[in-house]
Amino acid sequence: MVLAAKIFVVKEENNLTLLASKLKNFRLEQDLNAEDQSFTLLSEISDMNVSKESLDGTFSFDSVFLVDQHGKSVAVTRTYHAPFSFDLFGKSLYLTIFEKKSRANSIANELSKALFMSLGQIVEARIQPDTLKHFHDDNFDDTKVIFFDDVDLPNISKLSLYGEALGSTSMYTDYLTHGKIWYAVVKSRKYGYVVGVTRNAIVTVFSRIDLPDLKRYLKNEILPLLD
């Protein structure tokens, strides 16, 4: 199963015990009407565990979507369960949410409001273009996908390469003169995982992996890349 995660930076606060106390009783209810039905959507946090360097938990939330039942649209609810982890690394505190981008962004905003009473205290992490290039160059033996942005060619905003061992091709070298790597799918030499990484710290692992191993991989190979 493909696992995805997005990493954020927590501004200013780095006291994990204090964060845990603020999140301990988090529970949010929201009323919603859809397709002539009324719903009460629930968001809550469970399974929290705090240690000296990390705070883990699960953010659960309801979402409404429409399904077809014999030609009629019916609104139903689904509950998502997104593991998350606050990790101290160097002088920074990072939040990793193990969900797809859009849902991870929404959860990060809810956590920012719960912890700091405002948005903007939990923001996207960033990998500098040169740092991502070096990461790719260190693991490019089996690169199959690369996207470039900030392209200087007229009327072209993005470039992409698909194929085998792209890091050793002349087109890769040529594209680097016109843009910066935004996304690359590489095979980690150390761990053997096939991983897609973007400059705004979205990580998708295409190899077979469980959550504890993914957390370990992110801490050892991805957190060191962040600003």
Descriptive notes:
- The chain contains 5 helices and 12 strands.
- The chain is of the alpha+beta class and 227 residues long.
- The chain folds into 2 domains: 122 residues, no CATH class; 71 residues, no CATH class.
- Strands 1, 2, 3, 4, 5, 6, 7, 8, 9, 10, 11 and 12 form a 12-stranded antiparallel β-sheet that branches.
- The model has no long low-confidence stretch (mean pLDDT 92).
List the keywords:
alpha+beta; globular; twelve-stranded antiparallel beta sheet; 227 residues; 5 helices
List the helices and strands and how they pair.
Elements: E1 3-10, H1 16-23, E2 27-34, E3 37-50, E4 54-69, E5 72-89, E6 92-97, H2 101-116, E7 122-124, H3 129-138, E8 145-149, E9 159-162, H4 170-176, E10 180-187, E11 194-198, E12 202-205, H5 211-222
Antiparallel strand pairs: 1-6, 1-7, 1-12, 2-3, 3-4, 4-5, 5-6, 8-9, 8-10, 10-11, 11-12
Output the radius of gyration.
Answer: 20 Å
Number of helices: 5
Helix and strand string, N-terminal first? EHEEEEEHEHEEHEEEH
- Quickly count the domains: 2
- Name the assembly state: single chain
Summarize the structure.
This protein is α+β, with helices and mostly antiparallel strands and about 230 residues long. Helices cover about 25% and strands about 45% of the residues.
